[in-house]
């Protein structure tokens, strides 16, 4: 007489795998390999590792990378452009260290994509980082040159402007994005040099 196959629910297999120490089923995985020395393979400056080019049309670049254009990502782009100018560098050199202090939620985090598009820096290259702050009033962007703490600039978006774009109805987003491209820097953010 033929026996019926034993059916095991998929969740049961996951429970069994969770109970097995990771080193048993990840035996040859790089995750379990001995720690390795970190080698910086993509240094800043003009070199083989920094071959990107600045977007010709920032509006299209923001839309393509972020999915839509909004005042938060345009604000990030504007701060990024100002930082390039003040540190006398250009897009894609990866010679700036940028930390974005924001509540870790949208729309605040959209600023980070704007900074990436505005500077050519990259979260994957670790030259742009996110740091959490509890309130919108604390939003700022800290920029310094990699390898030098001699000069840091803190860019603090104007609180009134942040409130305006945070509370705007969805149908105003397009117009607010255009406005953000056109306003003077001093209408969008303050700058503070930190020595």
How does this model look, in words?
The protein has 195 residues and is α+β, with helices and mostly antiparallel strands. The protein contains eight helices and five strands. It has a five-stranded mixed sheet. The chain is globular and about 45 Å long. Residues 7-32 have low confidence and may be disordered.
The strand line-up of the biggest sheet is 2-1-3-4-5
Count the strands? 5
The share of residues in extended strands comes to 15-25%
**Residue-averaged pLDDT:** 84
Query: Which of globular, elongated, flat, extended, rod-shaped describes the shape?
Result: globular
Which class do the helix and strand fractions yield?
A: alpha+beta
Low-pLDDT stretches are 7-32
Measured as a percent range, the helix fraction is 25-40%
Q: Return the CATH topology.
A: 60s Ribosomal Protein L30, Chain: A
Order of helices and strands: HHHHEHEEEHHHE
The end-to-end span amounts to 85 Å
CATH 2nd-level architecture: 2-Layer Sandwich
Tell me the count of domains: 1
CATH class categorisation: Alpha Beta
Tally of alpha and pi helices? 8
**Biggest sheet overview:** 5 strands, mixed
Task: Give me the Rg, rounded.
Answer: 23 Å
Task: Give the arrangement of secondary structure elements.
Blueprint: H1 10-19, H2 22-25, H3 58-66, H4 71-86, E1 96-102, H5 110-119, E2 128-132, E3 140-145, E4 152-157, H6 159-167, H7 173-182, H8 185-188, E5 189-194
Parallel strand pairs: 1-2
Antiparallel strand pairs: 1-3, 3-4, 4-5
Helix pairs in contact: 3-5, 4-5, 4-7
């Amino acid at each position: 007489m033929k026996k019926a196959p034993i059916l095991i629910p998929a969740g049961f297999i996951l429970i069994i795998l969770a109970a097995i120490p990771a080193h048993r089923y990840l035996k040859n995985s790089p995750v379990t390999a001995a720690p390795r020395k970190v080698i910086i393979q993509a240094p800043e400056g003009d070199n083989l590792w920094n071959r990107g080019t600045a977007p010709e049309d920032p509006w299209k670049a923001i839309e393509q990378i972020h999915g839509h254009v909004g005042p938060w990502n345009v604000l990030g782009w504007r701060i990024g452009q100002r930082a390039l100018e003040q540190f006398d560098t250009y897009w894609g050199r990866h010679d700036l260290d940028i930390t974005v202090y924001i509540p870790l939620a949208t729309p605040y985090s959209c600023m980070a994509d704007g900074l990436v598009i505005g500077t050519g820096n990259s979260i994957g290259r670790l030259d742009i980082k996110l740091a959490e702050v509890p309130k919108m009033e604390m939003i700022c962007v800290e920029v310094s040159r990699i390898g030098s703490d001699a000069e840091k600039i803190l860019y603090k978006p104007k609180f009134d402007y942040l409130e305006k774009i945070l509370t705007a109805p969805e149908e105003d987003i397009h117009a607010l994005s255009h406005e953000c491209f056109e306003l003077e820097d001093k209408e969008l953010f303050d700058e503070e040099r930190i020595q």
